[in-house]
Design brief:
Blueprint: H1 2-20, E1 31-35, E2 38-41, H2 42-51, H3 54-57, H4 62-85, H5 92-116, H6 123-132, E3 138-139, E4 142-150, H7 153-164, H8 169-176, E5 192-193, H9 205-211, E6 223-224, E7 229-238, E8 241-242, H10 245-275, H11 292-301, H12 305-318, H13 325-339, H14 343-356, H15 363-372, H16 382-385
Helix pairs in contact: 6-10, 11-12, 12-13, 13-14, 14-15
Length: 389
């Protein structure tokens, strides 16, 4: 039944195509559907499918899935044409949303092409990172090999004789090996590290360790395991040590680039602000402010830490040189640290006491708080800090 439906749909598509460009005509621009005067070509259909995330694309595999996806494109086009005919292209909200989408798309494209794409990580930085992070690039000893497993030492020795006489190792393995898991692959094992084991074929860590004594290309003497006798040809051997820089260069670049991009972004942003005359009118935020004494009194009289924080912040913002500015700045840090447990903002506030009010009597207390936040209660309380006025 599904095949019958699919055949009808295919015939329908071919009829439509024949009317437009001829079914089986120009394969590059074959029309697979039409909505009014809008054609959906085979190329467009493939492009739309390719744009889907891999997981979603799996839902539209095969002819039936492709037609299902095409139906969705038709549905979208029908609704779009209906909305356009109804005048929604001039709707105020639509126009506003389109403008916002345009702004975001332009900003994203600018950031991608003018910031991320132009930032390179200098080779000197890559080499310095590589030299300073030895532990990050260490690799374990690894070995890859083929093996032939037999029941007796004599059988293993005979297999080795044949290989050394010129027969292909993989062919001999397919013929005589008793290891069903690797026989058809010519005895090829996955890469193994020192300390690994293969219990299904009786190979333990000591067996793997012994293999490291052999060179690449060599065929071992018969070796005993719990499951039988083996001969092994070493395919690849990598000693323990630091990975070569060339092997990890891309990894290091990807690790360092985000920081470089952020730095370049900040530099570019500063230049753009200057070029475009960007500035904040701080007077707008200081219009009709409360007096310094009023703010200080409000902060002292309220029990809510967030309200006190707002009063102290407003005081410092409007009266940075005021009589209570240093005390208010200290209390911003104190409230963050002791009442809100916000140690990042607290540290910033205390550091501002040190930088902005170096002559204040609270400098030592601010330094103590920076060094001891979260460890113990400070040797003072709020009443020690605030002016008695």
């Amino acid at each position: 039944m599904q095949r019958f439906v699919y055949a009808l749909l295919l015939i329908s598509l071919c009829v439509t195509t024949a009317l437009l460009s001829g079914c089986g005509g120009d394969q590059g621009e074959q029309v697979v559907a039409r909505v009014g005067r809008v054609n959906i070509t085979e190329t467009e259909l493939k492009q739309k499918l390719a744009e889907l995330p891999p997981f979603t694309r799996q839902q539209f595999q095969g002819p039936e899935g492709t037609i299902d996806f095409l139906e969705r494109l038709i549905e979208e086009e029908v609704l779009y044409q209906a909305a356009e005919r109804a005048g929604y292209d001039k709707d105020a909200e639509v126009v506003k949303n389109l403008e916002q989408m345009k702004r975001r798309a332009m900003i994203q494209a600018f950031y991608r092409d003018e910031i991320e794409a132009v930032v390179d990580v200098p080779e000197t930085d890559v080499e310095a990172y590589y030299d300073e992070h030895d532990e990050q690039f260490q690799r374990r000893a690894r070995i890859k090999f083929r093996h032939i497993m037999t029941n007796t030492r004599g059988q293993a020795a005979e297999a080795r004789r044949r290989v050394l006489a010129g027969e292909d190792f993989a062919s001999v393995a397919r013929e005589v090996s008793t290891d069903a898991s690797t026989k058809q692959a010519g005895g090829l094992m996955r890469s193994l590290h020192l300390g690994d084991e293969l219990p299904n074929v009786g190979i333990d860590a000591d067996f793997i360790d012994e293999l490291f004594a052999w060179k690449v290309g060599e065929v071992t003497e018969p070796l005993r395991s719990e499951k039988g006798w083996h001969i092994v040809r070493i395919e690849e051997k990598i000693e323990a040590g630091k990975k070569p820089l060339d092997d990890v260069r891309d990894q290091i670049v990807q690790s360092l680039k985000p920081t470089k991009v952020r730095e370049y972004y900040q530099e570019t942003l500063a230049q753009l602000k200057e070029r475009h005359g960007a500035e904040i009118n701080e007077k707008a935020f200081r219009s009709q402010p409360r007096t310094e004494e009023e703010l200080f009194t409000l902060a002292q009289e309220t029990d809510d830490p967030l309200d006190r924080l707002n009063y102290y912040t407003e005081l410092v913002f409007n009266y940075p040189e005021g009589d209570h500015a240093a005390e208010a700045q200290f209390m911003i840090g104190f409230i963050h640290a002791e009442e809100l447990n916000n140690y990042g903002p607290a540290r910033n506030a205390f550091e501002r006491v040190l930088s902005e009010y170096p002559d204040s009597e609270l400098v030592d207390s601010a330094q103590w708080m920076i060094e001891n936040m979260g460890e113990a209660s400070p040797p003072f309380d709020e009443s020690d800090v605030l002016s008695p006025e």
